Amino acid sequence: MSGLNLNHVTKQFGNFTAVNDVNLSVPDGTFVCLLGPSGCGKTTLMRMIAGLDLPTGGSIQLGGADITQVPTHKRDLGMVFQSLALFPHLTVGENIAYSLRIRGTPKDIQKKRVDELLAMIHLPGFADRSVAKLSGGQRQRVAIARALAISPKLFLLDEPLSALDAKLREAMQVELRQLQQRLGITTIVVTHDQREAMTMADTVVVMNGGEIRQAAAPVDIYRRPADSFVADFIGQTNLLPVAADSAGRASVLGELVEGIALPAGAAKGMLSVRPEDVQLTAPGHGAIAGTVTFIRDLGGAIETFVEAGGTQVIAVSSPRNRPDVSVGQSVGIRLDPATSVVLAR
Amino acid sequence: MRREPPQRLADYGPLFFPAGMLIVFFVVPFATMIAVSVFQREQGGFYTPAFVFDNYARFLSLFFGKVLGFSLFLAIAVAAACVVIGIPFTYLLSRSPRKIQIVWLVALLSILSLSEVMIGFAWSTLFSRTAGITNLFVWLGLMAQAQALTPSFGAVMTAMTYQAFPYTVLVLYPALVRLDPTLTEAARTLGASPVKAFFTVVVPALRNTILATLIMVFIFALGSYLLPQLLGRPQHWTLSVLITDQAIYQSNMPFAAAMAVFLVLVSLALVGLALYAGQQRQAK
Q1: Which of A72, A76, A91 to mutate to test the interface with B (most CBs of B within 10 A)?
Q2: Contact between chains at B180 and A83 (C-beta distance less than 8 A)
């Protein structure tokens, strides 16, 4: 089996389990984002893939070969560090050529490859500059070019864009995704920024507490979260308690809602409803009763905060469909079963 | 706050004290030494003011040339040994747990509290036949018979390296602690083995620090005059030993001063050469 495969990968530091029984299959040429809050084990998992940390259990395969115990420098990979780790004593060109020099590549081939890579990252003619004199975005590009110099099988990036300002970060996200698609290289990015993950990834792997909570395409992660952690971590969501009566009919915040069913036998659950899927109507007629507590007009979107049955529900609407409500008004909330996801927890 | 260049004489006030100390304790004695170096020696007595180059002419001989050559060689050897041992040692130290670092640093600092005399006698005991480490080797079965390791060149080198080692570590330590540990990790992901990463990333990134350390230990070792006498044979005596001998036992101040001036000039020239070479490589 080609691609990257993680089988029951576990890492323990003393009594602390940083990564717990992770199974993941990354087909060749895909872009995977490891997403999660800090301390969720995503960086440790990446360091194990790179060989900088060794797993305490499980195995890692790359391109069909077991690389669990292979030292880092013999794995065919390129990595961009959070600190970028550009070598301060080398010029831009020498930094990019480092992996070639280590492998004893002839000087003229090194130079040709450096020029190619500098053109690729839109910094032609920068070979003789000192890395200390580059801007943040330029340093970022040089680190990417250095990692790609030997055309590795696997491209790893650990929070690569976290040092850049918001605007540059968004531009680099698009650029990185386009670069990855052009080169068709298997890429894994660690990030805590869900927008970044949604922009770039084919597959988003949401981690928490050292475990994978869900691994799926960005839209699926957003539309069909596997549990309440994923639903809450990715974007904004309303998590509403659901209760089922003896006949199996589900009620949300005390109001029966047609079309929503809890798993057989479960009496309680959670419903995840995205704010843009919450409809505000006139009270009564089977709608969940609530009171508007706050309205936030962000220009591009209007957020209406509704208090219903002791829970705050947020509804987002576009300016074209501005809800005709004001603070203190009683409103009804309607949920569409098609866009509501029932979660066990 | 914006710093203004000093306008009036009083603005230079803070500089007066260090400048005064420098003049009283460095410039005046050094100027005196230069002056004495051209004075005329009086046999059996002291010296009379004069302006002669006899003292300089006297050591332009093969004997003093050899001693000077050996002194420089010894100082360079000690500096090289300190740096070669000190860099890997300090690198590993900077990556070990905090507690271990503190124990080592305190131990190294305590060496600084030992005088050259104590270090010299300690090593001469350790290297002696009757009470030295060779007895331990005999007991371990590594050696057939205990033997004296001093006086010898090795003994001089060992003691001088021991004496200069704490300084080496103290100069290298801050630079190595500040060195981003992900630099070596990056080198490893780019295909360098840990040893190769050390030599292609850690050592070059610390080039200036290493050069500074070499120069510092070199000058420190050049001034050593007790250890070569305690642990070495007469052919291992440095120019500093001869200066002491001339100044204290032969009462030939002008000649001692001339040798001292010459030693200062030669070492300044070597340091300048090293700095120049370092800058040339950096500019490249």
Answers
A1: A72
A2: yes
* Cα–Cα dist B53/B39, whole Å: 8
Closest listed residue to residue B270, CA positions, set B228, B223, B214: B214
Confirm whether B228 is domain-assigned: yes
Q: What are phi and psi of B232, to 5 degrees?
A: -115, 170
Cα(A43)–Cα(A192) distance, rounded to whole angstroms?
A: 10
Alpha-carbon distance of B263 to B284, in angstroms, equals: 32
3-state SS assignment for residue A244: strand
B278 CB neighbours in chain A (<8 A) are none
Task: Indicate the fold that domain A236-343 takes in CATH.
Answer: OB fold (Dihydrolipoamide Acetyltransferase, E2P) (2.40.50)
| pLDDT single digits (tens) B141-196 | 888 888 888 788 999 999 999 999 999 999 999 999 988 889 999 999 999 999 99
| Nearest chain B residue to A48, by CA | B189
Prediction ipTM score: 0.80
Q: Provide the CATH number for the domain around residue B185.
A: 1.10.3720.10
Q: Tokens 């589900």 belong to which residue? A: A250
Q: Which fold has domain A4-228?
A: Rossmann fold (3.40.50)
Looking at the complex, does the CB of residue A114 fall below 8 Å from at least one CB of chain B? no
Closest chain A C-alpha to B205 CA, distance in angstroms: 5
Structural domain range at position B175: 61-117+165-283
pTM of the full predicted structure?
0.77
b/e burial code for range A151-169 (CB count within 10 A of at least 16 → b): ebbbbbbbbbbeebeeeeb
Per-residue model confidence as pLDDT tens digits over B197-243: 999 999 998 888 898 899 899 988 988 888 998 888 888 888 888 88
Which residues 185-244 in chain B show a CB within 8 A of chain A? 185-194, 196-197, 200-201, 204-205, 207
Count of domains forming chain B: 1
Burial class of residue B180 (count of CB atoms within 10 Å of its CB; 0-12, 13-18, 19+): middle
